[in-house]
Amino acid sequence: MSAVVEAHETSKEQPIRVERDGGILTLTNADAPINRMTLAFMNQLEELIEAAAEDPSIRVIVITAEGDTNFSVGMDLKQLGSVKPEDQDALFDQRLRVEAMRR
Fold first, then answer.
1. How far apart are CA 101 and CA 66, in angstroms?
2. Strands 36-37 and 74-75
3. What string of DSSP letters covers the chain?
4. Which residues, in sequence order, are CB contacts of 55 under 8 Å at separation 6+?
5. Mind listing the pLDDT tens digit of every residue in the chain (103 residues)?
6. Which residues on adjacent β-strands are paired with residue 100?
């Protein structure tokens, strides 16, 4: 098993709580109550999905969020406004890569 998909707690740099139960990997956006999709969240999500794709023992990835009001409000617009225009395409491409990842 890759170290990147080991269970761990969250931090500002790693906002996704990772839990593993056999072949089930649960990734939880732990930014309750609104569960923003920050740049750190998107980076970590991509890394975790890529690592899980290389681990044949992981059969299912569950993506969820803390709280009971909503899954996510979406991208953190305040943070998105700080992204340089030349980096916005890379961020959009990353989002597309994450959405396209399938086994």
1. 23
2. parallel
3. --GGGS-B---SS--EEEEEETTEEEEEE--TTTTEE-HHHHHHHHHHHHHHHT-TT--EEEEEESSSS-S--EE-HHHHTTS-HHHHHHHHHHHHHHHH---
4. 1, 2, 5
5. 444 466 566 666 778 999 999 999 999 988 777 777 777 888 888 889 889 989 999 999 998 888 887 777 777 777 777 777 777 777 767 767 767 765 5
6. none
Question: Phi-psi category of 35—alpha, beta or left, where left has phi over 0 and alpha has psi -120 to 50?
Answer: left
Record the pTM: 0.71
Tokens for 80? Answer: 């998105």
